[in-house]
What we know:
alpha/beta, four-stranded mixed β-sheet, 7 strands
Amino acid sequence: MDGYITVLRNGFSHTGLELKLPLSLSDLLKISTEHFGENIQTFYQGDGCLLKSVELLRDRDILFAACYESFKGAEITKQIELKDGRCKYQQILSSIQLSGWIKLNVGGRCFTTTRNTLTKYHGTMLERMFSNQEHWHSAIDSNGCYLIDRSPDFFEPILNYMRNGVLIINDGINPKGVLEEAKFFGIKPIIEELESSVVTEEKAQACVSRSEFMRLLMTTSSTDNLRCQ
């Protein structure tokens, strides 16, 4: 049968491709594997059923490409208001609610926030990941959270800053780590704020060290061996 189908990565709404019918299952697997950069093993239909035969495909069908994970397209399917559950890929993108909630798995800790928060600052990595203008592919865990291999302790103050514009770093969290995290994600306002404060703190620590050294000199006998570490 002639026509086009849409293939989305299982659990994603903003990464996908359109393919022309007819095509074989081997071609479908090969093209999807190359496009998503993962070893695609199977395909789910919009209702969560496994695709048994490509002969069942019809024009404007939607498939969810998967490796070994379970079906994660239910929420995406709900967001697409379609007659007979079929449409073109660009229609899918335009119908997704881009301000919806997003779950992140950062270093094993789950964070929940909105797409608007993550795309608040232009030019950042997070904006590129979750903007509808970019087709960024990121792995997801079994709970549908986007996986980000970074420190959750350093990421938390960054996310809160993106929410309310105020940088608060809890006791026990090294500001240098938060600074490096901000550089990784490209969030310039945090970088500018932390770079000045980190430099000031380092200068203060250096002054304390010199003061301590002078105190040792003043209180140590001239016959003693002065050892500073």
